[in-house]
Amino acid sequence: MKILISGFEPFGKLESNPTEALVKEAADWKIEGIDIRTVVLPVVYRECAARLQEEIEAVKPDVVLSLGVAVGRSAVTPERIGINVQHTEGEGKFGDNSGRKPDNEPLIEGGPDGLFATLPNREITRALTDSGIPAQISNSAGTYICNNTLYETLCYVRERGSQIKAGFIHVPATPEMASHTPHVPTMSLDVQAKALKTILTVIREN
Amino acid sequence: MKILISGFEPFGKLESNPTEALVKEAADWKIEGIDIRTVVLPVVYRECAARLQEEIEAVKPDVVLSLGVAVGRSAVTPERIGINVQHTEGEGKFGDNSGRKPDNEPLIEGGPDGLFATLPNREITRALTDSGIPAQISNSAGTYICNNTLYETLCYVRERGSQIKAGFIHVPATPEMASHTPHVPTMSLDVQAKALKTILTVIREN
Amino acid sequence: MKILISGFEPFGKLESNPTEALVKEAADWKIEGIDIRTVVLPVVYRECAARLQEEIEAVKPDVVLSLGVAVGRSAVTPERIGINVQHTEGEGKFGDNSGRKPDNEPLIEGGPDGLFATLPNREITRALTDSGIPAQISNSAGTYICNNTLYETLCYVRERGSQIKAGFIHVPATPEMASHTPHVPTMSLDVQAKALKTILTVIREN
Amino acid sequence: MKILISGFEPFGKLESNPTEALVKEAADWKIEGIDIRTVVLPVVYRECAARLQEEIEAVKPDVVLSLGVAVGRSAVTPERIGINVQHTEGEGKFGDNSGRKPDNEPLIEGGPDGLFATLPNREITRALTDSGIPAQISNSAGTYICNNTLYETLCYVRERGSQIKAGFIHVPATPEMASHTPHVPTMSLDVQAKALKTILTVIREN
């Protein structure tokens, strides 16, 4: 099974992005039955998804697993749905890395309002909590680049009638990112890597 | 420098207590210039402090560093003050491990209302955040066993005119403890152990 | 303009539901240009939406505005989207008022994954914050009865090619509901009623 | 019984302070058996307490009840203890209204570390929750102007061996203050005024 894992470059006030570190680490893992490919995406509306689609066409994966950091969350959270909106607020309040700040605009004119991710989110969540890692299905990927990546990837797969499974999983900030913001929950990169290995195994089995 | 580190047994609905694991791990550390001694305290009002005092008298430490878990906190939090009250609410709502649930009672009749910890809390907090671990001085150790341990230890030291430095540091829940409560922030035992080593080094230098 | 406002009966451990009080109060309001009709819905999956549809057919409103309480939120939150899922967790962990606890099931087999509400959510949010009431568009109505009501109502309107506008707005708990849970944010019924009047005026103008 | 109620002027980024509005409103209340006097204090370290002491000497109250706003809290919170420290962080991160930003300094050299408030906090909390207003005893008034006012007032009373009862109660932000920060819990001025009347009645009876 070929799995394409995407992470993001840093954004806003962040100097690093744990998902970039995670995909670089994952690129070297040997897991039986899984051919791991990775890509780091730009934090720019629409370009994030366009870059991922290029890679999908080059790699031809069975599964696309996108990772993003959700500063403020304490658990690993597989996303249930991508929605057809781009809007900057909260984490995205500085706009994307090109400086654009869309205000409640659609991502794709005439696209479906929302599309469900097709990863085995329930099985992933159960396996994570069983292995001692806090996890929960999330009902909103927000309206920033993470949602954009998920929504457009799901549209891409659906339009082509493709069998590719696709989804998005948010991870918490790392301790290093949040050492001066003591109320922000964190998860160390070691635990995040352990979570990612568990997730890959569940995807392989489902 | 001889440092006596205390942790606690589990309490309430918790099946384990990371501070028990931490002190057991610390008992085997070799850190230059520090003679580490450890003790695991009962989660029972008054007995917690009595047990620690026995150990202080047996060990004759230069510093007493007590550790406790604060479920819900995301950072390592050195406590500023112990106060003369015992009261069960929040985490302690099930009462202590003997089943007692005091209601806003003093710990020591006629004792001072509050006593400041004498560890170098500012230096500890700065060293932790500099090393990428979220930390902040806390202004309240609550009214449960942690505060009890801190308050009575500070009284004990003060009454004897002793030169012993004493304080209390809260750590977050571990991922394993909170895997089914995804809104509870966590810190892995690895990061907690790294934090404890940093704390010990700061105490040695100050 | 005829506006049908729905509220809910109590659920879970709640003894009252502020949205029931709100719609009863609103039934007596005289607001120029608005014919207010109200209904209180059962907190039972599927029945909530069926009961609302009966009322829509009887009343033939121009707008359907559903209200629900979101214990834990501090602001008035118009919902962006309803999704095709029923799942009990969080507030809904006791199941619905019939005792049913669906586990990540669709509401309508073959229905669209998500549908956007058609109320002027941006204008509502701006008018509320301008009048001193905390408000924000929410990206998730959850997976309990509130989302069920929103999703099925949007499906109903879409299937019929109807011009009815429909949406859902969550309000915080009231102080009376949360007096013994001091960490739960609240908004008094007076402020909620002021918010509802502002919302109705915005709907009339848009 | 003569009760001196203090509020504060605005501070930091706040344009108004609900405790100023509350004491101005309370100045006109007629409550049997209570002679209400009020004062609005400057948000400047040490001056806050000095101004309150002037008023205590002029008014000769039986009780001093200080009010402050705690942005982020959702309940009315009588404070248990004032502590001998001044330190700017969190709400006070902009420094006081004179621009001073003390770093973990004592308020009074050689003063006791902490002093308990002498208001009937338990009875106040119970009466508030019984009347449908979220309330809880707080174990920390922070290290900003509120704590300063409480600590120095308690020192003043103790040094003089006075029979004056003194304490501090924090109230939440109002909806108007937080309309653009939707995650900040609020309590309307109406509910705060109802709370204050309840508090005054409890003080009269205890």
UniProtKB/TrEMBL annotation, chains A, B, C, D:
The organism's taxonomy opens as: Bacteria, Bacillati, Bacillota, Bacilli, Bacillales
Active-site residues (renumbered)? C146
PROSITE patterns referenced in this protein's UniProt entry, alphabetically: PYRASE_CYS
Q: Name one Pfam family in it.
A: Peptidase_C15
Top-level taxon: Bacteria
- Do the record's keywords include Repeat? no
Query: GO CC annotation: what is one?
Result: cytosol
Q: Which family does it belong to?
A: Belongs to the peptidase C15 family.
Q: Which Enzyme Commission number(s) are listed?
A: 3.4.19.3
Q: Which GO terms describe its biological process?
A: proteolysis
Protein name (database record): Pyroglutamyl-peptidase I
**Where is there biased composition of kind Basic and acidic residues?**
88-104
Q: Which PANTHER family match?
A: PROTEASE FAMILY C15 PYROGLUTAMYL-PEPTIDASE I-RELATED (PTHR23402), PYROGLUTAMYL-PEPTIDASE I (PTHR23402:SF1)
CDD domains according to UniProt: Peptidase_C15 (cd00501)
Keywords per UniProt: Cytoplasm, Hydrolase, Protease, Thiol protease
Enzyme category, top tier? hydrolase
